[in-house]
Structures are given as structure tokens and as C-alpha cells.
Amino acid sequence: MQSFANKRAVITGAGSGIGTALAHALSSQGCHVILSDIDQGSLETVRADLIKSSYHRNLTTKTFVADVSDYEQMKAFSFFVESEFGKVDLLINNAGIGLGAFFQDCSLKDMQELFDTNFWGVVYGCKVFLPLLERADEGHIVNISSVLGLVSGPRVSAYCSSKFAVRGFSDSLRHDFHLIGNRIKVSCAFPSGIKTNILANSKIVIPAGIDSSADKERQRVEPWFWSQPDEAARHILSGVSKGKIRIHVGKGAWFLDLISRFFPVSYTRFLPKSILE
Question: Which of 55, 71, 124, 159 is catalytic?
């Protein structure tokens, strides 16, 4: 997709962070955006900011409140988009949540809820918008994984599992499309630590007997969230423009992908000890 001008882009999780930055970046390049989030107030704020911006001109900005983990809500979202635009050129499955816990302290309910958003939200997005993407001249799907879909670490067994699942699903989906002659392109993006509200909103489970707290754990890892959302948006859209299959997003993402390929078992020896403690 060489140009985003006059294209129609659907973005989930658009009420904050990378989703908001993508909305602004696409609008600045003349793209119509359809934004979804679970938080109506945040969505309306983003929409108002886009309309006020100098680059909005004659662009259309629509919003729809939906929980990506709810298939019926996602179907309703796709029906809304179809009624307004008829087709979709770019789908960015961005919505996601975090969870920090050792596996033995992680409830199955918390793990299931995380998968419902991080994995099934991506699957639902692809499923309901596939017919609209097939109507476009050059449909493109971007599924947001994470560098924790490339490498793993302690306290993130649930999160890593969901992001590895997004990576595997995206790769297989691309093979499916190629085999049946579907022209839709599929990219998977791997953000490193991006300064969004995901850390602040993540549930942190502290094991019994450990002298720590959720706030202390957030402070411990916060220094690794060193890239800004607008930088992440630039990397993602640049990757789409170049037709990249894997899109490295933010500082360190390319390096982590590299060491995971060359040292699939021993890559941890290249990582700071503070990450693995």
C-alpha cells in the first residue's frame, strides 16, 4: 500500500496509545479512519482532536464502541463500517491488555480474559472484516503482537502466550491467503516498550511473602518503555507501505528479533539482568 490517501482504515484500541497515534498519522496522510475502543469517552476525545486538526480537511472520522473480546459486538462494528463505507482497505487489530504474574499465581480466569482480548480480539477482527477487505483493491491486515511474541521472560507467561499466538495466527493466515489466491496482505507488528497506558492498566499479581507491590513492579519495568506512540505509528505505517511481513516497532525490537532467531534458546544471555529478575 504505497499511499493511504482516500483509503479507509479500521483501528481497534484507538482510544489511547498506539491506536490514537495511528489515527492521527493516517489522518495526516489523507486516510478516512474508523476508530473503535471499549471507552466511549476516550474515543470521542480522539475524534474531536482529529476534527480540529489542520490536516482533517474533507476526511471522515467515525467511532464505534466495541469490546474486541465480544464477537457479537465485533460483528455489529463490521456492519456499521459496511453501512458507512462499504469496504475497508486497512485493518489494524491493535487493542490489547497486559498481565504480570508468575504462572502459579495467575488465575485461569485472568489468563482467559487476557486471551479473549489479545488473541481472540485479533481473530474476531480478521473474521468480521475479511469480506470488507476483499472488496478493496489492496486490502491489508496488521495484527499487533509484541516483542514478547518473539522472546519470553518471567512474570509474563500469559501475555507472552497471547502474543506468540498472534504471531503464529498471522503467519498462518498469510499462508492461507497466498494458497487460495487472496490478495490481502498480512503483517504482524512487534512493538517494544511503548509509553502507553498499558503498564498502568495492567493487572500485577504479587506472590505471597514477597516484599513488593504492583506499583513497585511497574516502576521496576517502566524504564524499558522508552519509545513514544507516534514513533510506533510511524514504524507500523512505514512497514505497511513497504509491504513488510514483520514490522519492528520501537527501540530494540529489531535486535530482539535478531537474537531470537540466531539464539532461540540462549538469547537471555544478551538481555539485561534486571529484565530477568
Answer: 159
**Which of 191-227 are b and which e, b meaning 16 or more Cβ less than 10 Å from the residue's Cβ?**
bbbbbbebbeebbbbbeeeeeeeeeebeeebeebbeb
Q: Is the dihedral of CA 109, 115, 118, 122 positive or negative?
A: negative
* Parallel, antiparallel or unpaired: strands 140-144 and 90-93: parallel
How far is it, in rounded angstroms, from Cα 73 to Cα 111?
Answer: 21
Long-range contacts of 41-44 (CB under 8 A, 24+ apart): 42/15, 42/16, 43/14, 43/15
Summarised one tens digit per residue, pLDDT across range 13-33 is 999 999 999 999 999 999 999
Topology (CATH level 3) of domain 8-276: Rossmann fold (3.40.50)
Comparing CA positions, the residue from 214, 198, 221, 206 lying closest to residue 104 is 206
Cell of 219: 516502576
Q: Is 159 a catalytic residue?
A: yes
Residues 56-69: tens digit of each pLDDT: 678 999 999 999 99
Strand order in the sheet with 90-93: 61-65, 32-37, 8-11, 90-93, 140-144, 185-191, 246-249
The number of angstroms, rounded, from the C-alpha of 36 to the middle of its chain's C-alpha atoms is 13
Write out the three cell numbers for 80.
456499521
Is the Cβ–Cβ distance between 68 and 91 less than 8 Å? no
